[in-house]
Amino acid sequence: MSNIVSQQILLKRYPTGAPTEQDFSAVETPIAELGDGEVLNRTIYLSLDPYMRGRMSDRASYASPVALGSVMVGSTVSQVVKSNHSQFSVGDFVVGYDGWQSYAIAKGETLRKLDPHQLPLSYALGITGMPGMTAYFALLDIGKPKEGETIVVSAASGAVGAVVGQLAKIKNCRAVGIVGSDEKCEYLVNELGFDACINRKTQDLNSALQAACPNGIDIYVDHTAGPILEAVLQQINLGARIPLVGLVSQYNAKTLPPGPNLMPLLVKRALIKGFLVGDYQERHAEFIEDMSQWLREGKLKYKEDKVKGLENAIHAFIGLLEGHNFGKLIVQISDDPSHK
Ligand code: NAP
Ligand code: FER
Q1: Which one is the CATH code of 5-125+303-339: 3.90.180.10, 3.30.559.10, 3.20.20.70, 3.40.190.10?
Q2: What's the pLDDT score for residue 1?
Q3: Where are the domains positioned within the chain?
Q4: 221 C-alpha vs ligand 2 centroid, how far in Å?
Q5: Which residue's alpha carbon is nearest to atom 8 within ligand 2?
Q6: In this predicted structure, what is the pLDDT of residue 317?
Q7: Among 66, 44, 68, 40, CA closest to 53
Q8: What is the mean pLDDT of residues 99-117?
Q9: Would you say 50 and 61 are in contact if contact means Cβ atoms under 8 Å apart?
């Protein structure tokens, strides 16, 4: 055993609602000897991120929970103190996933070297780390911004949101942020170049969005779900895109609010897209050709629920919305001479 002691923060219990100090415990643990391929890191920076709340829960999730009594997980920037790995030397700066502790033994393959002359080391946990990458791909790959479009982002002054808004400006779009204080709003507009900003705590979301987005909303990068998503949806444009990136409004919820829980959409990278059949008129011939053939070949079965007499239409229609029809509901109003 080396004589180095690591200060560690352990998860003591899974919080109900908002985490409290009592959910954690602080301990000092002597650092073990290094195994083959391992590196001893002195933590310089630890990233704190909203996803950690999800790991502090034994509810089923996309990621396994932090085991009670173990060190809280988290991304770190560290300096190598000892190395049993050929690619890392004492003094190297690395980004890794060492968690909430002052020293950690890490496997070399979990670390990436950082050049301290390129950018401040801590940026590797933010703008050039996981949050920055989230902003970059959520906006550019899913949002696909086009010049002149309006982009709204919630948690807009945060690690991801501030990058989303600035990337929107680089793409010559209108950037509108939603945040929780006037101070954050001023920063977004005056320092980061956002076109407008809404304080979700003091302003009426619907009217503020209307004022801030006179041409409607083309992209909403959703970090919150909940009431902000609800308000934004009222003002989206034809063909709007909504990268569902986070649901922070419900991370501390003891019980989920009524209505659909969108978390499975995020976890499964699922697509919900509005549909209007009229958009497909130009492809009518293709539809008729395929369907007629599949019907002739017996590959499609079709059941009709035929009600006879116009006088029965009202009753049948009321039943349609109550599930009384079984198959395609049709009213036969007069004889069909083609049908024997
Ligand atoms: P952040 O924005 O730096 O911090 C979280 C912010 O959430 C808070 O500062 C607060 O800002 C806002 N917030 C908290 N409670 C809220 C509520 N009830 N309603 C609305 N807003 C609330 O965090 P971040 O690291 O940039 O992450 C932002 C979001 O992206 C999170 O939902 C996170 O889980 C998600 N994320 C997802 C991925 C992914 O791969 N899917 C990756 C990274 C991050 P205001 O008070 O100013 O509104
Ligand atoms: C988050 C950060 C990261 C989050 C999800 C992730 C839903 C997922 C990362 C991954 O598994 O790649 O805040 O919130």
Answers
A1: 3.90.180.10
A2: 55
A3: 5-125+303-339, 130-279
A4: 14
A5: 51
A6: 97
A7: 66
A8: 98
A9: no
CB 208, CB 234: distance < 8 Å: no
Kindly report the average pLDDT of the chain as a whole number: 97
SS3 109: helix
Substitution site in 59, 73, 134 for ligand 2 pocket (most atoms within 8 Å of beta carbon): 134
292 CA to middle of ligand 1, Å? 51
Q: List the residue whose alpha carbon is closest to atom 6 of ligand 1.
A: 155
Q: Which atom of ligand 1 is nearest to the CA of 200?
A: 48
Give ligand 2 pocket residues (Cβ under 6 A): 49-51, 246, 266
> In ligand 1, which atom is closest to the CA atom of 49?
25
Give residue-wise pLDDT tens across range 265-303.
999 999 999 999 999 999 999 999 999 999 999 999 999
Q: Are 93 and 116 in contact (CB under 8 A)?
A: yes
CATH architecture group of domain 130-279: 3-Layer(aba) Sandwich (3.40)
Nearest ligand to the C-alpha of residue 226?
Answer: 1
Q: What is the per-residue pLDDT across 134-145, written as a single tens digit (0 to 9) for each? A: 999 999 999 999
The b/e string for 186-216 (b: 16+ C-beta within 10 A; e otherwise) is ebbbeebebbbbbbbeebebeebbeebbeee
Strand duo 174-179 + 196-199: pairing:
parallel
Which has the closest alpha carbon to 3: 27, 26, 33? 33
Beta strands in 223-280 (DSSP E): 236-241
Ligand 1 binding pocket mutation candidate from 46, 164, 181, 223 (most atoms within 8 A of CB): 223
- Nearest C-alpha to atom 42 of ligand 1 is from which residue? 134
Q: Which atom of ligand 1 is nearest to the CA of 54?
A: 34
244 burial class (0-12, 13-18, 19+ CB within 10 angstroms)?
buried
> Residue with the nearest Cα to atom 13 of ligand 2?
51
